[in-house]
Q: What sequence folds into this?
């Protein structure tokens, strides 16, 4: 069985991504939660992950770190499960937007860190955040329009691209960010997933807090 090392469910957006994908695709795994920013956290993570960061996937003698690398490993290991969309054009698009998520949208990340235990009042968070929101919702609309006929997610069925954008969906919800109807319907589909609801319940049951994420 795979072992997935993750951080606090309340805060760790990167951990949510492979966890959610593996749950939805039915890939069995055990989870190890290491709370972040606690005494000894770094040493505990370094004992399992060479980068000193979470998430990390352990599969026998194979260790994979970074969310996107974990998803690519799962695609190699479980190719029959549809980690990426089936069509060549859809798959290319999905990998492109997943990589864009991995590398970008820093203004949104910095202004609206993931905290599933909070609801913040809607407010103007600046031009850079607005630009990130505009680009992300454009991705949602394009993927849904071009490739989403087979289901409620970006490419129809849930894939790694949806997993990559799931934490952004939670940010839009938490920070009261208003989006277009297509994006809102997509958000509802993600937030309504039983697997996401399981993660959310686990997050709210945690007792650890990270103070710098509590005020926005």
A:
């Amino acid at each position: 069985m795979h072992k997935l090392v993750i951080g606090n469910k309340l805060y760790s957006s990167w951990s949510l991504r492979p966890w959610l994908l593996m749950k939805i695709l039915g890939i069995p795994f055990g989870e190890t939660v290491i709370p972040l920013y606690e005494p000894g956290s770094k040493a505990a993570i370094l004992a399992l992950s060479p980068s000193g960061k979470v998430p990390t996937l352990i599969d026998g003698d194979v260790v994979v770190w970074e969310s996107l690398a974990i998803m690519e490993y799962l695609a190699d290991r479980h190719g029959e499960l549809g980690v990426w969309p089936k069509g060549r054009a859809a798959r290319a698009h999905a990998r492109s937007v997943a990589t864009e998520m991995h590398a970008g949208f820093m203004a949104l990340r910095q202004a609206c860190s993931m905290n599933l235990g909070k609801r913040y009042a809607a407010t103007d968070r600046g031009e850079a955040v607005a630009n990130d929101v505009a680009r992300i919702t454009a991705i949602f609309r394009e993927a849904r329009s071009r490739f989403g006929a087979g289901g409620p997610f970006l490419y129809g069925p849930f894939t790694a691209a949806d997993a990559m954008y799931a934490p952004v969906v939670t940010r839009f919800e938490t920070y009261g960010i208003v989006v277009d109807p297509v994006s809102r319907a997509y958000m509802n589909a993600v937030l309504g997933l039983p697997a996401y609801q399981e993660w959310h319940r686990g997050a709210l049951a945690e007792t650890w807090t990270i103070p710098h994420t509590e005020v926005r």
Q: What stands out?
A: The chain has a mean pLDDT of 95.
